[in-house]
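Chain A, query sequence.
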Amino acid sequence: MSLRTPWLVVFDLDGTLIDSSLDLCLAVNAALAHVGAPILSHELITTYIGDGAAMLVWRALSGTSDLDRGPDQAGRERDSFERALHYFLEYYREHKLDNTRTYEGVLPALEKIRSDAPKLPMAILTNKPVNPSREICEALGLAPFFFANYGGNSLPTKKPDPAGLHLLMQEAEAIWRQSSHDPQEFPPDGVVMVGDSEADVLAGRHAGARTLGCRYGLAPNRLPLACPDMLCDSPSEWPRLLGLSS
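Chain A, predicted structure.
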């Protein structure tokens, strides 16, 4: 395996593989209404997505995307936050597939990657809770492409912490070693993290992986500021940028 050809590709979910923004926005506003808070524009809520359900609801209640203050620092607001979060999770569990779809080109791109590199391990690492992540992937035909799907509650930490990537790297290395008796190297920069947010880019960078940013996702204006190693405007570019197709 050359450094140009990856031995593991890890994908974010929301804003990368699926467009879930409408269902997330509707769930957030349902939770806000439940606790008597003002509803917000979908455009604003979309800027809060990417760091897990708790932070999404906290940002919507507090009206800020400030990462220096979160639900663990909540004082008088804790009761409203906990009620809103519980309602959000219950509502989203029932409505997560009302409008959510894969982005155009995702399934053909994954099929092309699988055709070009049949043994290449691929996985999902998302900050979305793991159960809805896996249920959505099953429903939309994504699950068969991935050997693992870890969510924001699968590990003690979420992206941008690299723990999830480190775990997937260990599991993918074991897959390669089981399928081949030849000694091989598994350098971190032979891993590619594909995502649409700063959290994805930072997780990849902290793990020593290369990063591929998706400009069609939920934060297209902020993504270039994170300086991913590569950028794409469509999933159709993935096979070429991954070094699997000319």
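The radius of gyration is 18 Å. Residues 28 and 88 are 6 Å apart (CA to CA).
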